[in-house]
Amino acid sequence: MMKSMKKPMKKLINDMDIILLDEEFHCRGSFGPMHKGRPNEQDLAAAQEFAAGLIK
């Protein structure tokens, strides 16, 4: 629903020793009847590809 989670995440981890990267991954999730069946196999593959790109 949100375009970016950067601001809320930054606020949440403000006092923790955690580095927040600029890159974000977004995927639709099942929310009641909306987006039923999500995340699906394609979403999971995209998440895996995104994560792999962060550690290269």
Please give a handful of descriptors for the protein shown:
56 residues; mainly alpha; flat; 38% helix
Topology:
Elements (H helix, E strand, L loop, with lengths): L5 H7 L28 H14 L2
Outline the structure in words.
The chain has 56 residues and is mostly helical. The chain is built from two helices and no strands. It has helices at residues 6-12, 41-54. It is flat, with a radius of gyration of 14 Å. The protein starts with 5 loop residues before the first helix and ends with a helix. The model has no long low-confidence stretch (mean pLDDT 89).
Shape: flat
Rounded radius of gyration (Å): 14 Å
Terminal residue distance: 29 Å
Q: State the major sheet.
A: none
Which regions are unreliable across 5 or more consecutive residues at pLDDT < 50? none
**Got a strand count?**
0
Work out the helicity level. Answer: 25-40%
> Count of helices?
2
Mean pLDDT: 89
How large a portion of the residues is in β-strands, by DSSP E? under 5%
Task: Classify the secondary structure makeup into a structural class.
Answer: mainly alpha
Would you list the SSEs in sequence order as H and E? HH
Q: Briefly, what is this?
A:
The protein has 2 helices and no strands.
